[in-house]
Amino acid sequence: MHAAGAPPITASTSTWPVYSAPRVDRRYLSIRAWTSLYSDSENHHYSRRSQQYWDKFYKLHKNKFFKDRHYLEKDWRSYFDDEIESSHGKVVLEVGCGAGNTIFPLIATFPNLYVHACDFSPNAITLVKSHANFSAEKMNAFVCDATKDDLCVNVMPSTVDVVTLIFTLSAVSPGKMASILENCKKVLKPNAHILLRDYAVGDSAQVKLHDRDQMISENFYFRGDGTCSFYFSEAFMATLFQSAGFVIVDINTYCKEITNHSRNITMQRRWIRAIFGRS
């Protein structure tokens, strides 16, 4: 929030430097090889204790840290407008739901949806269930570490139309990402989709973390509160999903220059938006 009387925060497009994709050609790596490539990241203190630090994060910040995220209707509504709005009984699963900042705006926009929501933080799920708009008739919220816990324990196999991954993959080490995608495949219907938004290489937050020497492995960092964040190139993201057997429907990197006039700070924000299909 800007100071009283100060100019507001503004956003504009900008010219961006080119950031290289990971140097290893991973187009033809199996999921097992992909996982072993980043095995060293698993042994880092903050990587091993990611669940603990995220649970502490939600205990401390409750639902006050993130604003409600209307990403589905803003990013993908034109693509799914007819498919979702015109039919009842569609099922969505959000993996890494946090305090519910995406799922509650989603239900408000598409009231006919049934939503499964999971997170590996028990405190996050407690916040979801205590939300004023939580309804057990329309939502199934449960604790699950999707890197190792079988989603099919709480979600019937092949019953989900759309999985959303909103800044979820970036919160875990690169070696665990493929496990999440394999887990999601179990509950997705044939020809269903994954909708994704996540951090992109070159984001201003990555630059700060790199300058502070907080890198765990290539493009993977730990923050001051102990949580972690990975920054994706399109090539890395595409290879990750293709290696897991998904088809690329759409993938783009979006860039925005945000200026906080009261603090005289300009931030170059970058994120990836993508749609992947289950083959």
Automatic annotation (TrEMBL):
Keyword Transferase: yes
Key word Plastid present: no
EC number per UniProt: 2.1.1.-
Annotated ranges, domain Methyltransferase type: 93-194
GO molecular function: RNA methyltransferase activity; S-adenosylmethionine-dependent methyltransferase activity
Highest taxon in the source lineage: Eukaryota
Transmembrane segments: none
Keywords: Methyltransferase, Transferase
Annotated GO biological process: methylation
InterPro entries: Methyltransf_12, METTL2/6/8-like, SAM-dependent_MTases_sf
Top enzyme category: transferase
UniProt xrefs under SUPFAM superfamilies: S-adenosyl-L-methionine-dependent methyltransferases
Pfam families, alphabetized: Methyltransf_12
Family to which the UniProt record says this protein belongs: Belongs to the methyltransferase superfamily. METL family.
Main function: S-adenosyl-L-methionine-dependent methyltransferase.
Protein name in the entry: tRNA N(3)-methylcytidine methyltransferase
Species, as recorded: Nicotiana sylvestris (Wood tobacco)
